[in-house]
């Protein structure tokens, strides 16, 4: 496999990763709505530890960023423009 083919495959994977992250964010919005309905705080450290425990250690720093972005989205109320 040459460089160009590998880069094309990487680009395809990147598009899939972004789509999955957007799907995750949408689910986090729903969780945030339910947390507000139940009067619960946004941060659940036990849940975060559970999620991070399933992620290989090399990816945990990146996954912490994903969790933080999801928490920011929940704090904003999950509202998207035009919706």
UniProtKB/TrEMBL annotation:
Under the heading Gene3D superfamilies, the entry gives: Chorismate mutase (1.20.59.10)
One Pfam family per UniProt: CM_2
Q: Which GO terms describe its molecular function?
A: chorismate mutase activity
Coiled-coil boundaries: 3-30
Has UniProt tagged this entry with the keyword Coiled coil? Answer: yes
What EC number(s) does this enzyme carry? 5.4.99.5
Start and end of every Chorismate mutase domain? Answer: 1-78
| Keyword tags | Coiled coil, Isomerase
Coiled coil found in the keyword field? yes
Query: What general EC class does the enzyme of this chain belong to?
Result: isomerase
Q: Which GO terms describe its biological process?
A: chorismate metabolic process
InterPro entries reported in the protein's UniProt record: Chorismate_II_sf, CM_dom_sf, CM_II_prokaryot
Source domain of life is Archaea
Q: What is this protein called?
A: Chorismate mutase
């Amino acid at each position: 496999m040459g460089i160009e083919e590998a880069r094309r495959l990487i680009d395809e994977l990147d598009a899939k990763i972004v789509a999955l992250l957007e799907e995750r964010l949408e689910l986090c919005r729903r969780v945030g709505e339910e947390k507000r309905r139940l009067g619960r705080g946004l941060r659940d450290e036990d849940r975060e530890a559970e999620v991070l425990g399933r992620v290989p250690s090399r990816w945990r720093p990146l996954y912490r960023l994903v969790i933080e972005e999801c928490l920011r989205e929940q704090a904003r109320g999950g509202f998207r423009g035009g919706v």
